[in-house]
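yo, Membrane or secreted protein is done. seq:
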Amino acid sequence: MKTVRKLVLMLGVAAFLFSCQSTNKVLSKTERRTEIMNAIANDESMSKEMIKMLMKIKMGEMKMEDKGMMMMKKHAEMMEMMKENPEMMKSMMAEMMNKAKSDTTMMFEMCRTMMKNEKMMEMMQKMKAMDQKSKKEEDHKGHH
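structure:
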């Protein structure tokens, strides 16, 4: 019983002291992080709670992996459709670019993904060339 009181008192004091600091700042210090982990490991109810939380995270990751596989299959189907219908491809790409322009996080992620993928970079260059070609044709028609 004394151990439980000490543990509760220690956690209470730690919570009070740490409440003034950000979570990341508290966890960045190895000594404090170890102290917190030991407190959780030594308390049965907190250990169970932590295990439940970890299991939820693991299940979420597994669901995302399943969705990733499904998305890859859908991606292949979509790429085939876009090859068959270039206008649809241009429309989808334009819509995606407009959304990315309004969301800087999405723009950053999209640029990073494209930089890693050579085929995507080639496709973007082809689209840029197609846009420049169509713009020149429009300008040429406007002069006549």
